[in-house]
Amino acid sequence: MSQIYKKKLLSYIHAYENLTEGNLSSLLMPLFSENAYFEDPFNQVVGKKQIQKIFQHMFDHTISPRFVVMNYLLEEQMAFLRWEFCFLDRQFKEHRIVGVSKVVFDQKGDVLSHIDYWDTGKYIYQKIPVLRSIIRWVNRFFRP
Q: CA–CA separation, 81 vs 67, rounded Å?
């Protein structure tokens, strides 16, 4: 059974690394179960349609978004992916976010749950001038 999950995981990784706005509905979305759960630091949704809206939002608000899965660990129906997400903002400044996803497959091998973990303070909030100084102060407070 674990070979089935490995094959499904490799298909999922392939879909992420080759994802475009044009192939979102044909490449990535078929890999999710109908009532899949998706969570990242800004979203918590259930269902393929809601998940697709999150990815469409990504394509609508970034330029040239791309994912690279650097490594993964698979244990039965659960996998952890370490990834890098790169994109350009509207001013053509490049951004890079490194994170981890926990992915759970159902009995058929469809993605039942996908939860992203990444540091919003480091990658988003510290880039906002008003918040940057507050975050730096907090970081200094907790460092020896």
A: 11
